[in-house]
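#random but structural
TW: two for the price of one
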Amino acid sequence: MDVLQIYELIYYFMLAVCIAIFISGLDDAFIDVVYWLRTTYRAAYRRSFIPRSLRKPINVHELREKPQSPIAIMVPAWDESNVIASMLTTTIDFFDYDNYQIFVGAYRNDVQTMNEVKRMARRFPQVQLVVVPHDGPTNKADCLNWIIQAVFLYEEENKQKFAGIVMHDSEDVVHPLELRLYNWLLDRVGLIQIPVRTLEPVWHQFVAGTYLDEFAEWHCKDLIVREVLGNIVPSAGVATCFSRDAIEFLARENRNQPFNTASLTEDYDISFRLSKAGVKQIFVNYPVDFEFTQRNFKGELIQVTRRIPIAVSEFFPDKFWPAVRQKSRWVIGIALQGWTNLAWEGNLFRKYFFLRDRKGLVVHFVSLMAYLLVIIYFLIWFGAEFLGGPLFPFALPTWLLLANSVLLLNRLLQRMIFVAYLYSWRQALLAIPRVVVCNFINFFATVRAVSRYSASLFRGKPLTWEKTDHQYPSMDQLAQKRKYLGELLLEQQAIDAELLERALAINEATGRSLGRILVEGDCIDEDALADAICRQTGYPRAHLATETITLPPDYFPQAMTKQYRVFPLTIDHLGKLRLAVTGPLLPAAQAEIKKNSELPLSPVIVTDGEMRQLLGQSGVLVEDHIELVEEKLCATRFTPNDPIN
């Protein structure tokens, strides 16, 4: 094959890629046109034809006035011991609603997650642990089906019926008015979806930023168009509320299993099943003033108020390969399993949206091929210009290049508009270079999805729940003040205000910790204290009875262990050092421990007695140190009936 033939082959590749990009661009532009025509029409219609007194939508006051119907919240969990307690605590603190129950599903072989949920259930009567009676992980749909059975059983035992059932994940940060909004709509709608937004990453976290870009456009534009044209709203898997009647229909239809265990994206599948029964579905974009924190150009956290929709927020992966893993699951469930399970059923618009969901199987490859061909063309031009190589004798049609340029600019502009709407123009500008990162993630995710799905078909093995490793926002990121230990003990009703005042007086006089004063005075037990410290620090609780200890006691120098009262337990599956502590690790302690271990830390709370047991068995803690502490404690021992002085 001579050079001319090679150039001709490259030309036809270029032409095919350009045509594919043109068709995909027209598809995206069609969605844009429908959205903006609808938006313009609604604005003009409301101003021209609707009386001024009727134009005003429902307000927050009306949401709060409607009587609260009982609502169940489902949280499937696998290996979520690091975040589930923080999620439940924050959720209960945030909700401006009282009549709800949270059902958390955990597998019987995930002891650490079960222990964390049990700890939360002891503190909050709204939390119910649902134990999946077989080993995990299976898939999310299987876990949800067991949770639904627990919801039905709870209804039977308590002689009440939930009006709605909500899906959430263990990394979700809820909006205070979320349940109020569901409660307002549930008597008229079978499926309610509110937007999902990513918590704003640092500007240089381009991988996490790609989720910000995609979800902003998807949940502010694409889902609205799908509802208008196809009368269907694909569930996002979180922030979705089903009416009780909708769940009953799904259970009857599928052998008492509402969620399809043959799909890795049960949320996508369920919306199409409900549409067959004529169940009304709605995507709700209901803006309210929302306060949150974001980083300025100096990296400082600042408080911001913006009018954005009631939405659920969460962190998404900020590393390349975890993002590829998560998106490959979406490609399998939506494009591949969706093609198998749902085929091309429905009317013309339904078929169109199926095609739009599955075009990624081709377009993601085409995008990477386009980058490769640009590089090849540049090398050919460079060789001809500076090295005397042969010129490229073919030219692509000018109209095609111009059309693709216009479509590309439109694509970037649309994304920037919706990112700016939910976040800021700074993030909107960053969305431009993040498009390249997004294309590479989607390409590798598609390759991985096709590989996993093909292997599953040939080997006959079901695809299991490939969990994303979750993180939960810190207290600073949630713009909350870290509460004092005494405040938390009062909230837990472990002590009363009078007892706290007396204990604080002893704390001030002796310098001893408040928690130890209360424990030694038989006012609270060590477990109640540990629960409060977990809530204060955001660290999960550890229990020695079920804790795996694989590291030697001399992993740290004895002086460090003694000074900071820490004990190394194991290195977890994320490569983090699981470290037993009795309280928050100060920055100096964290820096020295990280320097010694060279691993990221995953602190877990143990009681003071458990720490003594660990250190005593290892011989790390010097005996006279224990005696000195005990002597001080005994010298100021008190009971609730003692006078302060």
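TW: number two ↓
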Amino acid sequence: MAKQRNDAPAFKGRWNNFAKEPEVLKSGKRSVIKRLWRYMSAYRKDMIIGMLASLGIVSINVASPYLIGLGIDRIANGDIPGLMKAVSILFVLNFIISYFVWLQGKYMTRAAQGAVRDLRRDLFARIQRLPLRYFDSRPKGDLMSRMTNDADTISSTLGDSISQLITSVCFLVGTFCVMLKLNVIMACICMTTMPLVFVTGRIIAAKSRKNFKKRQADLGVLNSVIQESIGNNRAVISLGLGKHVIGKTEEAAEDLKGDAIRALIAVGVMGPCMNMFRNLNIAITAGAGAYLAAKDIVTVGMVATMITYAERVSRPLNEIANVYGTIQSAIAGAARVFEVLDEPRETDDETDTDVDFVKGDVIFDNVTFGYDPDKVVLKNISFDAPAGKQTALVGTTGAGKTTVINLLTRFYDIDSGVITVDGKDIRDINRDSLRSKLGIVLQDTYLFTGTVADNIRYGKPDATDEEVREAARLANAAPFIEKMPLGYRTVLADSGSNLSHGQRQLLAIARTILADPSILILDEATSSVDTLTEKYIQDAFRALMKGRTTFIIAHRLNTIREADEILVLENGEIVERGSHGDLISAGGTYARLYKS
């Protein structure tokens, strides 16, 4: 049994690049808010109705203290009919405000959910158009966190917090206007603590903002660690790395906890501060009001009205304090989403053309390329792959075989030289159009959640059931599919983990047969299967390669004996080329690889 490792190195530095502040935030949070507003503005009708409902809520809340004070003055004057009238109006307004609250919630939620749906749609669409280089340098878990956690934070903020913020701000403005209208002296007294409120709010905002940014980034790191560990759980279990993985997760969770606590503590201070200012404001208003009432400058009802306003003014301040943390999280989350949206996408020039038919003549002419500008992987590679012929690429690990395929498929663009298909530079061909003519069978086959038929049909979404069955028959996949309890309707999940590696490969071959590509790429497609399964796969390949230009990458050299030409790569250069027999007779690099 493998011994669990306790001495795993700290992983923290590895994730530092993914916990940096998004570039979009460096231009200020206003730019983030403006971009969020563009998404919200697409739902103006819902927002207008929600805001009108907010104004209705504010109007009633502003009017209520005045009616309370008016009722008190009616009692003092013995005006019972006037008191009943004020009470009746308050009773009716209570029902009306409930309707306005429901209306506001409904339409603001519709606007918020619509905006977040559009944001997720744009984010996912951008991810689909990002170059492969982007995914090679970033953890998938962090991208998933931006799509889910950050978008959820934005959703809750736009749906609840923003409407609450609008209502609170409008109530503050409306209340101050009414107070000034009723009595300037008392209004000024009620506003004495406002400067303290704003200064305190700005100080707390500055302290908490950076922690909320770090919290969202830490959440992305934690998701990446978990996704990586679960996705590779077989390796974790087989290597006895349970404690190591737990340690990584605990460290990421500890970082998240620390930043979350610091962020929430800073925001948590806001509530008690606002309560203190509220109580101070009420005390000042009550004391000053009692003095003015004793001097007959104001009525008792006016003092009651102002005290009620002083108490109610603090309520929206508390609400603003409570939603502040959510808003900061949403801004940080939105910045992380916009960071992906701002990534340069994989684009085609306007002059790039579509191709309706590809004969399959492929030429590499003096091609040089490096994933890193300082490290060249392919050096002046030149070869012809005629239509309908089989070209094999062999060499030790790191020789550049897969890089050749990455360039042909335009996953990466070459640094110099030319690659042509049927005489046309592939850089002048629309990427999607070019890739639609290519069929790729990889060593690691990915199957999607769905039925067997659905997975085969990914090669041609509009294929009929009969076409699916014919593709499975040609791929030698039909025998094992038909033995399944539900046959082609069998549901696969978790990348088809209930199938053997060879069965997954046969489904991938059936998918490729159905797509009917002009150029076929087989990348180590039989390296992980047993000899009998390899025979079935090789038979399927013969049906698949018939009449197609084929590129074969293989370490098991007996699988490429029938190739028309074999290219031997070493350190990014072609050192030998020829048929299997010619290269064996030459006794060079290929012969040594074959014997080994």
